[in-house]
């Protein structure tokens, strides 16, 4: 079973560009992996530019000829294709409400450049610090099981030394 997530980057106009991430989206793996390997505006933008993905840091690939997994240097495992392009939300609020692929976690990167460009709007908020922010997402349903709202709760990304070693 997968733990679905959405990875986003805050833009200077305060819109959010994001992609879907399929496997291991919980903070103990994806949150830590993002903090350890994607911690600059450039590296996050490059990761998101590739589009929706199975995993952002995969060290194996299935060899169809050998019918087995083969070790490789860690890299993102993108789905590919026009339907897998990054998604754009007009605001942080829309990003937090728009878990349309049943994501269970949301991750948003804020860079120094964005903070500086919006210092008057961000001062005193959680977004006035560079780095990753994370939330758990839980849909709230109507009686007919249609989604009426989304409950979004901030979560902490643990330090690397207490993270999941898998």
Overall description:
The protein has 166 residues and is of the alpha+beta class. It has one domain. It is built from five helices and eight strands, in the order ββααβββαβααββ. The protein has helices at residues 27-37, 41-49, 92-97, 112-117, 119-122; strands spanning 5-10, 16-21, 53-63, 68-78, 87-89, 105-110, 131-141, 147-155. The strands form two sheets. Strands 5-2-1-6-7-8 form a six-stranded mixed β-sheet. Strands 3-4 form a two-stranded antiparallel ribbon. The chain is globular. The two termini are 15 Å apart.
Output mean pLDDT.
90
Largest sheet: 6 strands, mixed
How far do the termini sit from each other?
15 Å
Radius of gyration: 16 Å
Q: Provide the helix percentage.
A: 10-25%
Task: Tell me the strand order in the biggest sheet.
Answer: 5-2-1-6-7-8
**How many individual helices?**
5
Uncertain segments:
none
Beta-strand residue fraction: 35-45%
Oligomer: single chain
Net shape: globular
Order of helices and strands: EEHHEEEHEHHEE
Q: Count the E strands.
A: 8
How many structurally independent domains?
1
Derived structural class: alpha+beta
């Amino acid at each position: 079973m997968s733990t679905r997530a959405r990875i986003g980057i805050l833009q200077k106009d305060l819109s959010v560009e994001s992609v879907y991430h399929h496997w291991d989206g919980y903070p103990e793996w994806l949150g830590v992996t993002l903090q350890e390997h994607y911690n600059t505006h450039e590296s996050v933008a490059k990761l998101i530019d590739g589009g929706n993905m199975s995993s952002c840091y995969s060290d194996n690939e299935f060899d169809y000829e050998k019918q087995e997994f083969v070790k490789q240097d860690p890299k993102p495992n993108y789905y590919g294709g026009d339907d897998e392009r990054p998604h754009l939300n007009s605001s942080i609020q829309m990003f937090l409400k728009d878990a349309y692929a049943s994501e269970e976690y949301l991750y948003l990167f804020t860079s120094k450049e964005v903070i500086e460009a919006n210092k008057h709007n961000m001062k005193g908020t959680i977004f006035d610090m560079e780095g990753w922010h994370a939330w758990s997402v839980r849909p709230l349903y109507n009686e007919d099981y249609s989604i009426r709202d989304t409950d979004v709760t901030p979560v902490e990304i643990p330090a690397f030394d207490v993270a999941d070693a898998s």
